Amino acid sequence: MTGRYSSARNDEDNVERPNPDLFYTQPTFRADSPDLAKLRGRTDLTLKTPGIGLALAFDYYRFEAFATERERDARCGPTGHPDVRYERAMMKDLKHNKISLEMIACGHDVDHPSFDELVTPLFDAAFRRLIGDLVEAPKSEEGMLASTDIMIARVRYSIKAESVGGWIKFPISALTVFEQENRDVMSRTIGWVENRLELTASPSLFDTKPN
């Protein structure tokens, strides 16, 4: 085991497992939400689909990792979506839901003293996924070839791999859908992601744009 996350791989499914020494939350969704009934049986979802907010919440809210039990417990409770709240999660919950390292969100923001230690393995897992998708993408195409994202303090940070004039660029953006976040914190977090990307991939150009 190295750092706060184990790099050991499960022999059965060959995925990286979250570190059992951290403290986790899990999103829970209101079973009697009226939006759930509106979505039942729908596959052609658009932003105009009734109940789309809940569908977006299913993807937006993820299991989160925290450095201490106290900080984990402080983030339990209601969220910015009325049908979603966070509860404690044990390792058995992560195992039951087949949560791998790349699916975990960082619960702390960029100003937390343990931020680098917690988020670096999460970024690295997301970046490996991006590169894997990029390798499989058609090489002759222009435009977006692959994308990935990482959730940090309930804000989504996206990294795209785009082909522009024969070069691969990695624009970074930040988006908060349901939660209120300080734009200065978002900008500084983009800076962290950009610096980590430079250390990992040394791309020739970065386009950073918080949304």
Provide a quick synopsis of the model.
This protein is of the alpha+beta class. The chain is built from six helices and ten strands.
Mean pLDDT: 86
Side by side, the strands of the main sheet go: 3-4-1-2-5
Cα Rg: 18 Å
Shape annotation: globular
Summarize the structure in words.
There is one protein chain. The chain has 211 residues and is of the alpha+beta class. It folds into two domains: 23-106, no CATH class; 115-210. The chain contains six helices and ten strands; from the N terminus they run E-H-H-E-H-E-E-H-E-H-E-E-E-E-H-E. It has helices spanning 34-39, 52-60, 69-74, 91-96, 115-136, 183-201, and strands spanning 23-29, 64-66, 77-78, 84-89, 105-106, 143-152, 155-164, 167-169, 172-175, 208-210. The longest helix is centred in the middle third of the chain and has 22 residues, at 115-136. It is globular and about 50 Å long. The chain starts with 22 loop residues before the first strand and ends with a strand. The relative contact order is 0.13. The model is unreliable at 1-13 and 203-211 (pLDDT under 50).
